[in-house]
TrEMBL record:
Compositionally skewed regions (Basic and acidic residues) per UniProt: 316-335
Protein known as: Phosphatidic acid phosphatase type 2/haloperoxidase
Similarity field: Belongs to the PA-phosphatase related phosphoesterase family.
Keywords assigned by UniProt, alphabetized: Membrane, Oxidoreductase, Peroxidase, Transmembrane, Transmembrane helix
Biased composition (Polar residues): 336-352
Top-level taxonomic group: Eukaryota
Positions of region (Disordered): 291-401
InterPro entries for the chain: PAP-like, PAP2/HPO, PAP2/HPO_sf
Residue span, Phosphatidic acid phosphatase type 2/haloperoxidase domain: 124-269
GO cellular component, one term: membrane
Membrane topology category: Multi-pass membrane protein
GO molecular function, one term: phosphatidate phosphatase activity
Organism: Penicillium roqueforti (strain FM164)
Principal subcellular localisation of the protein: membrane
């Protein structure tokens, strides 16, 4: 198979190892599918059981409330369709920074995201969903075979021979069963619940994905966002509860299976997307992977003017700058010095929230599909350092008279600082230096 030299809709070329790194992701997902298929053919361990145990004497439900194909549609097909529709058609429709068409001068309806941005988001979104489901299925099936716990309807599946009794002392085993061998084999796969783990894996993932796109943990407190992201969790819970109603699983099996699915969904999401606690990233996927660089730490989030970071993976700022036309160019200039933003401003522009990039791509800096047009959250010139001005922009201006005056450095005429008489030393004029 020939490795593509560049991303779709992009003029920049990719090195082979960058492409190979994401090919491995799909290979791992395919390996998970193959592993599940193999594990499903293995005879599980058969635990001993008691014929007098009422917890395994439930009747076998011929018709399940939510069969596995329906559960896969709920936890797999629905999130997949949602990711495709939102990424390709909805994302950017409500953006406040829509670029203007060069010919007509009108704002573009699709928003600031180009096709290569959308394709990158689509790639990462699908990869995360498949990884969540793949991990859940493989881990669940491995635990089922290893544990071999009887289902609540095992006695009905077993159809013990007439006159069978528990050994004394001891318990019965599967040798007394006369029922369908396939049903009997599946009857020893109670823990953990596969419906529960797969449903929570897919729906927790899509819930986190929606939370990132909707900026659910910003400082606006919009309750409808919480309602939207909780809906998938409700669906996952109903699927899990149906397994108890059908006597396919014990409550403990459903609870632990759900916990496993939550972990798989969270881990898969964080492989490709930033945490919800960083709403200024707007749920945009991580850019192309870095190679040979240290992982980003908390300080890189606070560094202003940090240029070598991994949020610039798909975009060439010099060639494809998309500044909003109604904001002066000076408002978007980034200083080259590494100045710290005060911790009281939790919404710096995402251009400062980036990991070091090893410039794996020929031609210099790239940008990712992260939306770096959130100028409303970035620090602007003329405002106090550390302030997060509101809509009225009535922030207090910096007062140089309150600044610390060095006792070792001579004052210059460009300092713009008023020197009190008490602080004037030998050779220093007792005047107000013009500001």
């Amino acid at each position: 198979m020939e490795i593509p030299a560049k991303l779709p809709f992009s003029k920049r070329r990719l090195r082979p190892r960058v492409v190979i790194s994401y090919i491995f992701d799909y290979v791992i997902i395919i390996a998970c599918v193959a592993g599940f298929a193999i594990l499903n053919t293995i005879e599980p361990f058969h635990q001993h059981f008691s014929l007098t145990n009422i917890s395994i004497q439930y009747p076998y439900a011929v018709h399940e409330r939510i069969p596995m194909p329906y559960a896969l549609c709920i936890s797999g097909a629905f999130p997949l369709v949602l990711i495709i529709l939102y990424t390709l058609f909805i994302d950017g429709l409500f953006s406040h920074h829509k670029p203007h068409d060069a010919a007509s001068g009108k704002r573009k309806l699709r928003g600031p995201h180009r096709w290569k941005d959308r394709l990158w988001e689509l790639n990462c979104g699908i990869l995360g969903l498949l990884l969540a489901q793949g991990l859940a299925f493989v881990i669940t099936q491995a635990l089922k075979n290893a544990c071999g716990k009887p289902r609540p309807d095992l006695i009905d599946r077993c159809q013990p021979r007439a006159g069978s009794k528990d050994l004394f002392p001891g318990l019965s085993n599967s040798t007394i069963c006369t029922g369908d061998p396939a049903l009997l084999t599946d009857g020893f796969r109670s823990w953990p619940s596969g419906h529960s783990s797969s449903s929570f894996a897919g729906l927790v993932y899509i819930s986190l994905w929606l939370g990132g796109k909707l900026h659910v943990m910003d400082n606006r407190g919009e309750a409808w966002k919480s309602l939207v992201i909780m809906a998938p969790l409700l669906a996952a819970t109903l699927v899990a509860v149906s397994r108890i109603m059908d006597a396919r699983h014990h409550p403990f099996d459903v609870i632990t299976g759900s916990m496993l699915g939550i972990v798989c969904g969270f881990v898969a999401y964080r492989q490709y997307f930033p945490p919800l606690t960083e709403p200024w990233r707007k749920g945009r996927a991580y850019p192309i992977r870095t190679w040979g660089t240290e992982p980003s730490g908390p300080e890189t989030v606070r560094l202003k003017g940090f240029r070598q970071d991994s949020s610039t993976a798909l975009r060439n700022p010099e060639e494809e700058r998309m500044d909003p036309p109604d904001i002066p160019r000076s408002e978007h200039a980034r200083p080259d010095t590494s100045t710290y933003i005060h911790a009281s401003n939790p919404y710096p522009s995402n251009v400062y929230n980036r990991r070091p990039h090893d410039l794996d791509l020929d031609g210099g800096a790239w940008s990712s599909s992260e939306d770096d047009l959130s100028s409303g959250y970035e620090m602007r010139h003329g405002h106090t350092m550390g302030q997060n001005p509101g809509p009225d922009h009535n922030a207090h201006q910096y007062d140089p008279s309150n600044a610390y005056v060095s006792q070792t450095q001579p004052l210059t005429a460009n300092a713009g600082i008023h020197v009190p008489d008490a602080m004037a030393g030998p050779g220093r004029p007792l005047t107000n230096i013009p500001m």
